[in-house]
Amino acid sequence: MLTSPLAFERLAQDGRARVGRITTLHGTFETPVFMPVGTQATVKSQTTDDLQRAGVRILLCNTYHLHLRPGEEVIEHLGGLHRFMSWPGAILTDSGGFQVFSLARLREVREDGVLFQSHLDGSDVFLGPDQAMAIQQALGSDIAMAFDECPPHPAARSTVEAAVERTLRWAARCAERRAERPQQAVFGIVQGGIHPDLRQHCARELRAMGFDGLAIGGLSVGETKEMMNAVLEDTEPELPVDSPRYLMGVGAPEDLFEAIERGVDMFDCVMPTRNGRNGGCFTWSGKVRLKAAIHREDPGPLDPDCGCSTCRGYSRAYLRHLFNTDEMLGSQLASHHNIAFLQSLMEKIREAIRAGRFAELKAEFTARYFGPHER
Amino acid sequence: MLTSPLAFERLAQDGRARVGRITTLHGTFETPVFMPVGTQATVKSQTTDDLQRAGVRILLCNTYHLHLRPGEEVIEHLGGLHRFMSWPGAILTDSGGFQVFSLARLREVREDGVLFQSHLDGSDVFLGPDQAMAIQQALGSDIAMAFDECPPHPAARSTVEAAVERTLRWAARCAERRAERPQQAVFGIVQGGIHPDLRQHCARELRAMGFDGLAIGGLSVGETKEMMNAVLEDTEPELPVDSPRYLMGVGAPEDLFEAIERGVDMFDCVMPTRNGRNGGCFTWSGKVRLKAAIHREDPGPLDPDCGCSTCRGYSRAYLRHLFNTDEMLGSQLASHHNIAFLQSLMEKIREAIRAGRFAELKAEFTARYFGPHER
């Protein structure tokens, strides 16, 4: 058994909501934590200084995209992903499984992986547990994800069953290869669609493999919020208590509350940057669409309760002007705010859990966020 | 006669090259100075913090664009252009003349101005000296430009003559209206195409009108570099010694040297940001195209002799990856470098003028910039 390259301490608990502390080779941060997505080794429109100023300590990069461009051998040659993208904090890389099953054109799903066509040029690429681990080892992320099969929603139960079994066989192979890079943590991914028994079976089997943490995959793929919450509810008892639990692809504030309430510690989502590029912003008083004419002469900040550089420096009228004239600075400033907002939200949530008032914070946040101020 | 809202002191001279100091209500800076262009009240992809870190102390905004969107009344309502765009330094606004004659579809050139169609929606807009001054007064820039007629190149001498005479009549009207906003400096614009006698005549007449500075317009519009240098050479003796001389629309390093050698103090150009967005960068060793495959595995900075945040933080390989994957961070980082580079170049030029070695710096720069290292 390896000593874990990732230390996880539980600091506080309120119901099932937890505050923890994760230590990696690239810094320490508290959970619940939100990780912005740097698909192609860049969180779109943000410098790494911007990210640090927003309070980000860990981000996610995509194995699939980096394998295609510039290739992991280039990044390894340049000293690894941290150095390549000039990011001093922690990095989690996904395994490519989700992209292979969603973006690419599948050619053949085999026992040792998936043959597919690149979404860029149609060329053949093969990715399986061995390739995913080798690529992530070359990238040198702090946390690697096991290669999984993410079935679509809806799918026949038999399809989901087969995906769970394949995911488990692939996970076992990834766990075996973990020893090749002892300084890299590896998380398993729980699949099982919306079927409680499949989720629980998958989680139990993964626990036995000794991963450094477990993720819940295959959610936020079209199922209802009620279904997602039910899956979290049913899966949680089978997740290990002493290691991080990571819900993949979720970032809407209301969803974060629901998942944290059900014991989840880590999150990632493209939402803050994708919405930001279109002028969609989170605020403590609800969502704001910066393109709306109502902001035309508004001298106030995007969010008066936010201390980020966008809110300290610029008015809604100016931000609206930038979107109205297709100026890229608008995307930059809105994305920055959204990232900083989610960092602040997580900080408030951690404080509330420590104070035993998570439920109150959730109620207060929800009332204001979905209240009459929404624009 | 008004007291000038702009103080200009001459600090050093080497040949005709000058070092000066301009004081405005929004700060003091030395000349020769390069002003980045913030067409729509944003220097594309740069926050105002970015600009300050790059050493920028004065920037240019476009009257024509801001008149169309968001409208000067919105900006005035929000406290003026500095506050609107969150820029604490000095701002020069152009008069809109150049855009009216180059971007818009002309309907009618009248004695009191120009009726044209907006390039955005085809709606009718009228701009003349009165409108240009009123708009710039509402924007509240530190330096306003007189409304001029910028003839195309090539043009018949009679066309240029008529443009000069109209420019002079319009300038007289702008000079009259200067008293309405005593804290705003106003510069006249010398037209005259490539005809020395017309240029000299125009400059002499403008001098008599008591502007705070004179600009040379209608260059960098398609004439050869030799023609441009000849015009500068011939016009300079008629330009006032004790106020700033501004060459509009010029920003290539080699052109800056030529113009400074001929007594010019101020410059603006979209080049650093426009080229930057396409991966075209200035370096002390010549131009670099970041999209080129040669940079694929290059761990070195864009310019080892540059101290900007792009060169301190990121490798050529990473920058090339950003352009190769169409990531907007590439445009941001390259634009930032180009702006910082021109600020450094101007600083070196000022130092050289002070030390009486402008000609040596020009020779050294040229040898290296156009030397065998160019990529």
The best one-word shape of chain A is globular
Round the Cα radius of gyration of chain A to an integer and report it.
20 Å
CATH architecture of the largest domain in chain A: Alpha-Beta Barrel
Determine the CATH topology of the largest domain in chain A. Answer: TIM Barrel
Question: Class of the largest domain in chain A in CATH?
Answer: Alpha Beta
Class derived from helix and strand content of chain A: alpha/beta
Terminal residue distance of chain A:
53 Å
Number of helices of chain A: 15
Overall mean pLDDT of chain A stands at: 96
Number of strands of chain A: 16
Number of domains of chain A: 2
Looking across the biggest beta sheet of chain A, what order are the strands in?
4-14-13-12-11-10-6-5
CATH fourth-tier homologous superfamily of the largest domain in chain A: Queuine tRNA-ribosyltransferase-like
Largest sheet of chain A: 8 strands, parallel
SS strand fraction of chain A: 15-25%
Contiguous uncertain segments of 5+ residues of chain A: none
